[in-house]
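Support case: user asked for a sample of complex input and structure output to validate their parser. Sending the pair below.
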Amino acid sequence: MKRRQGWLFFIIFLLTLSVYLLINYPLQLGLDLQGGSQLTLQIIKEEGKVTRDELEAVNSVIDKRVNNLGVSESNLQTLGGDQLILELPGEQNPLVASRVLGKTALLEFRTQKEGTSIDLKTLQLQRLTIKELIEQYSFAEKSQNDNNLKVIQEDLKNIEQELNYSSTSNDLYGKLIEIKKYVDKEITNLFIKTDLSGKDLINAGRRQEQTNSNWEVLLTFSNSGGEKFAEITKSIAGTNQLLGIILDGESISEASVGNQFASTGITGGSATISGNFSAENARELEVQLKGGSLPLPIEIVETNTIGALLGSKNILKSLYAAISGLIFVGIFMIFNYRILGFVSVLSLVIYGFFNLAIYSLIPVTLTLPGISGLILSIGMAVDANILIFERIREELYDGNTLTRSIDSGFQRANSSIVDGHITTLLSCFVLFLLGTNFVKGFAATLGIGVLISLFTSLNCSKNILRFFTTYQSLRQKDLYLPRNNFSN
Amino acid sequence: MKYNLELIKNKRKIIGFSTVLILLSLLGILYSTFNTSYKKPINLGMDFVGGNELRIERICNEECSNFSPDSVLENLRENSKNKNLLNNIKLQSQNNNKLISIRTPYLSIQESNNLITNLDNIIGPLNYESKDSRLIGPKLGKRLLTNCVTSLLVSLFAISLYITIRFDKKYALFALLALFHDLFIVFGIFSWLGIILSVEVNSLFAVSLLTIAGYSVNDTVVIFDRIRENLKSKKEGYNETIQLSVNESFRRTTFTSITTLIPLLSIILFGSYSLFWFSLALSLGIIVGSYSSILLAPSLLLKD
């Protein structure tokens, strides 16, 4: 008897502990419950698998960029060896993050090939024209001026002919952007690589130009980077060769180095890029350069955004679903099993608390699929109770005493219960290993639920029931079986 | 209360009923596969083919004004830079014109934002706090599909292995037959739903199939356990013992199905819309699963 009471105290202790945990370590809510954005970033590698080192390297660059962006409470984690998941809680626009994160941001400094001055001039002029066309396009688009659009189209065709390149985009705007990129790449081809790159930077900043409203990006080189920069500028100072600043294979700025630097090059370990940046663009480039370039390109393959209001609605709806599910299951059990049903309701409540406490302990981030896993596992937890109670009823029908019936009911239902839990656990395990983030939430809560229900439905129900049966008034058989069925 | 299901008498009817269900499912799957507008056994949703799904509410004082989806689309097209993309756009309104849902092929975040801004200009103001937007690239879609198919196959294999080890051959075969019967019928129902109501399946559907697999096997195992136990004590003939065992486990099986269906029903009724089809698939699976464990699988065990 003492030992049995011991179990009961243990259960009460665990229950108190769960409540304590839940109060002090509140549950973490997923983005579908609190609102926010989630970006899935896919690392692109043409051949072979992404190695662990590469994943780490990409992860750390992205992490730096996210931090420099100043988004609050963001969360970055790796998924399945070649994906990263970035969560931005609240009403933060994923657009800026996507622009900053998606670029490789490989910064290069190149020197112009000799004898390409004329080619470069032509290309620069063409670039200027395209930029103007792009500006004109947005005006024409806004005012719905079809004539202007036609003129732009004509101009674009001329440039395409000059370049001997035909664009493949479907719409005019896409074509303009495509041609601009093409020209930037063509310019890049007129330059030779040097050993100075974004790796030689220790910092980046931005400021507004004094003469106009454009922004420029400031670069600070490391010691060796500063020396390299001096060396390179020295080699082209006073010549008609230009210094090309190239980002991801597209030239963003070409600058001449004055004759006065011919003896020492540009020293001081810093440089500015002024390429007609808007405030936004300058900030994005700054963040990218500070984080360094990505060792492998990435692509944003999934974006989910949930508004905060919708999130809180989702919480309420899930709460309604869970509570009404519990209540109706409870009514069903008490109606069919009387005292036994009441015991199962008690152990279900305990079951709920244990589950939530485990979520806050591990911690499991609660999402919509996660909640549905929990709600579904309520049904499965009751399943074990039903198996046991049916056995107890059979034993009672056979005329056994209450204590004996209860003991053998629990004993004989054991193997079926364990079997059923194992098949469900198998499914959960596979889901957790192979599933997406979304699916993992479901698998985790269902799996945890199944494990906990092994304890609550076998141990808790048994001990609560035994405790009840110590009271003489609760030992009448008709409290366990509906009377009219008893005679059967 | 004793139950008396006449399994032996109705063996042919039960097997016939299941055959009809299977054939109907097969018909749906074949129709969907060979119909030129689907070309797939089941209507694959955005998770698997990529695309952009947006739901957002309008802010209205009392009642939201009426609008025609076609004219809104026309307006959106005029304001969009990418004309081609909007050829495949679908727009619906729900809740008395309050809730707008839009489906398009894959868009970049920038393009999606532009779409929302344009929408706001046409039928705004919109409540951005109520936004639910999903963008899935086509590459990820393919990957998710392979992922889901692999997890289904792996776990079916694992369950089969477990069953074969635990039971002898005949039992294992019939338990698995019942399992595939259940999965096939749920799959078939969703093929039909895809054809009739253009219901799409996403990764949660794969999850529901997996869960149904675990559940259905569990149900069958409990009944087979009972049959084995009773056959050992052998009071009556083989067929009669099977029938008796089924009747003994009837309450348990229906009760557990009911207690699992109750929470699922409450998700269907009160839960978030994103879980609606998922819970429905699970509910159907549980109903078909209990039917096959109580009636079909034991009937297959009966000797002529």
